[in-house]
Amino acid sequence: MRFLDFLFPPKCIGCGEVLESASKLIHEKGGDAFCPSCRAEWEMAKLSQCARCRLPMIDCRCSSNMMRRNGNNVLLKLCSYKGEPMGAVKRLIFALKRSADRRAERFAAYQLHMPIMKYASIYLGADLIITNVPRRERGIINFGYDHAAFLAKNLSKITHIPYEPLLLREIDGKEQKNLDEEARRRNVKGVFSLNKKAASIKGRCIILVDDVVTTGASINECISVLKDAEPAAILPVCIAQNARIFTEEDKDK
Questions:
Q1: Which residues contact 118 (CB under 8 A, 6 or more apart)?
Q2: Which of 176, 169, 163, 220 is nearest to 193 (CA)?
Q3: 92 occurs within a structural domain
């Protein structure tokens, strides 16, 4: 156990329980994020069944209707995201968005790197680059950081795939969470642009990182902007996809 752990015992980001052990190896791999009970809840969320493809969420590749209409048929994710109750998944998202919790960042990055590398080794080329959906300026002002950028940089360290801030947010726009699907699409139109100071992505494979995908409006718009730079492929990934998407889409079938 590290000396600082005696002074400031690590606590579970799910329930706040003091963790009994935090060895260097566990700490580095983000294993000190959850207590055994909350970790079990997290693992069960990864194994919950997708309503569309019937695969466990960790193996699901389904994207939202909005993404598919734009030709983006694949979305890697770890689990589904529900508004209630306040469980392990939601606590992890909050720790990433609002607390700049380094343990949450490490944990999420290690969890994401496995399906990413599995998919990349089969479908993508060797020339990979990681980037992220930029956070709203208001969010950066309120919380002091871009959580998606932190997550993408952690993924870069783990996978040794270079990170580049390929996208800029030109317009802040309204907060998405209270908007319906069509309003979300309009709200992000023209919001993002290519970062001309970043490395060229022509012919390269882009891994595009975000925390949560609801309708897919933001990540969809980012993909559209990136496609203008002629990459070979774009792989969108997130920690969680809103479970309500599939329920709402099934009503339309």
A1: none
A2: 169
A3: yes
Residue 231 lies in a domain: yes
- Mean pLDDT for 27-33 is 67
CATH code of residue 198 = 3.40.50.2020
The angle subtended at Cα 117 by Cα 116 and Cα 118, nearest 5°, is 90
The total of other beta-carbon atoms located within 10 Å of residue 138's CB is 12
Residue 205 falls inside a structural domain: yes
Distance (Å, rounded) from C-alpha 83 to C-alpha 85? 7
The tens digit of pLDDT for each residue in 230-248 reads 999 999 999 999 876 554 4
| CA angle centred on 155, ends 153 and 156, rounded to 5° | 65
**pLDDT tens string 38-71:** 999 999 999 999 988 999 999 999 998 889 988 9
Domain membership of residue 195 (yes or no) is: yes
Boundaries of domain holding 225: 46-252
Tell me the whole-structure pTM to 2 decimals: 0.87
Number of domains in the chain: 1
